Amino acid sequence: DAKTTQPTSMDCAEGRAANLPCNHSTISGNEYVYWYRQIHSQGPQYIIHGLKNNETNEMASLIITEDRKSSTLILPHATLRDTAVYYCIVRGGSGGGADGLTFGKGTHLIIQP
Amino acid sequence: GAVVSQHPSWVICKSGTSVKIECRSLDFQATTMFWYRQFPKQSLMLMATSNEGSKATYEQGVEKDKFLINHASLTLSTLTVTSAHPEDSSFYICSARDPRTANYGYTFGSGTRLTVV
Lengths: 113, 117
Known about the structure:
heterodimer; A: mainly beta; five-stranded mixed beta sheet; four-stranded antiparallel beta sheet; 9 strands; 0% helix; B: mainly beta
């Protein structure tokens, strides 16, 4: 699986959009970009994933650059409950077969009141 | 959506004893489940892959005789930490993939906080 690079931490004001970047310059053609988040002392929660097109669901939007070397997770109206560590993970195939996920250090997003 | 239930949510045990952690897929069948460990202020580390009806596969550096995994049914995997020591104190998390879901993402349990005293 391709390596990802994320900022260690970010702050965002409550009610504003939180934009979390992820670099994955070595991503290969069949690898998807997945985003998970982990609220303190809980298991990770799936947010969104994509291959090349931008994606949106009820939680967030995922913007993938045309060369696929980076992406941005957007939380449109951040709330205090969005404070968590956000993980960007690149892996092959939608689901990737029977392999577990490789977690990097992620970005600790802190939403300020 | 897919739900993975993990039990117990926390446990305190004495050094030298064994602790069993259960991971259940509540509304789907999971031929494969995964066990992770997370130390304070660190990321999740994959420990092993649990395969229904066959032996688990362990990541490098994880002792298979210490962390016993049983996946006897399509909805239940158990992790037993044998002869636990204080250094085994950690947050243990299981996950599974529901093949029915369009995103084919992984669903995680809520984790088990193990403290060995």
